[in-house]
Design brief:
The protein has helices spanning 12-18, 21-35, 42-60, 64-86, 95-118, 122-130, 138-150, 157-183, 190-195, 199-209. The chain is mainly alpha-helical and 210 residues long.
Length: 210
C-alpha cells in the first residue's frame, strides 16, 4: 500500500508517512537521516528539512513551482516540529472533534501547496492564490458548477442536479468510511472488515454500489 489513507492524516509528518510511501521513505533513509535528521541542533534540523524538501520538489520536475511546493512542505514540517517541541498546552476538545480538526487543517495545507504543484508557472500559481476568494458567492459557485458539469456531457438540468446530489452522497459515504476505519476499526483495513461482514449485508452493499 503506497498510499495509506493520506487524507486522514493528523499532521504533515503523518501525511508523508501515508502519501507516496516509497518516495518519502527513500528521501528519509538516503537524504534526511544521513544529513543528521532531527538528532542535531535546531538550526541544523531546519536546514535538513529544507534541503530534503527542496530536493523532493526537484525530483518532481525542474521548475520553480515544484521547488516552492517543496519549500512549503518544509515550512509546514518546521512549524509542526517547533510547535511539538515548545507548545505543550493540552488540547481539551473531544477526541472526534480534535481528530477531524487536525485532518481538516492538514488537508487545507496540502491542498494549498498543490496550487503551486499543478500550476504551469509561478505567476499562474500566485494568480490563483490571489483569486481564491474573489467573487465568492454561493450563486456564482452553483452556476459555475452547473456549467462545468454541463460542458462534460449532454444532459438535462434534472440529470445534472442528480449528478451533484450523487457526488455529495458519495463524498459523505467516503468520509463516514474513513471515520469508521479510524474510530471503530482502529485503523484496520476496510477491505478486511467488509469481507468479514455477514453475507446478506455484504450482498446488499454490492447492490447499493451497483
Amino acid at each position: 500500500i503506497n498510499f495509506n489513507y493520506p487524507y486522514t492524516a493528523k499532521s504533515i509528518q503523518d501525511f508523508w508517512r501515508r502519501w507516496h510511501i516509497s518516495l518519502s521513505t527513500w528521501f528519509r533513509e538516503y537524504v534526511y537521516i544521513p544529513l543528521g535528521g532531527n538528532r542535531c541542533s535546531i538550526p541544523r534540523h531546519i536546514f535538513n528539512l529544507f534541503a530534503v524538501w527542496s530536493l523532493t520538489g526537484l525530483w518532481h520536475g525542474s521548475a520553480w513551482t515544484f521547488i516552492i511546493w517543496g519549500v512549503l512542505h518544509a515550512i509546514y514540517r518546521t512549524a509542526e516540529d517547533l510547535k511539538r517541541k515548545y507548545w505543550r498546552k493540552p488540547d481539551k476538545r473531544p477526541k472526534p472533534l480534535k481528530f477531524w480538526a487536525k485532518v481538516a487543517g492538514v488537508f487545507t495545507l496540502v491542498t494549498f501547496s498543490q496550487i503551486f504543484f499543478r500550476a504551469n508557472t509561478v505567476g499562474d500559481a500566485f494568480y490563483y492564490v490571489g483569486h481564491l476568494f474573489s467573487n465568492l458567492s454561493p450563486a456564482v459557485f452553483v452556476d459555475d458548477l452547473y456549467k462545468s458539469i454541463a460542458a462534460g456531457f449532454d444532459a438535462t438540468p434534472l440529470l445534472i442536479y442528480a449528478y451533484i446530489a450523487y457526488s455529495v452522497l458519495v463524498t459523505a459515504i467516503i468520509v463516514y468510511m474513513d471515520w469508521y476505519r479510524q474510530f471503530r476499526l482502529k485503523g484496520k483495513c476496510l477491505t478486511t472488515a467488509f469481507l468479514t461482514m455477514k453475507q446478506p449485508y455484504r450482498i446488499l452493499c454490492y447492490y447499493i454500489l451497483v
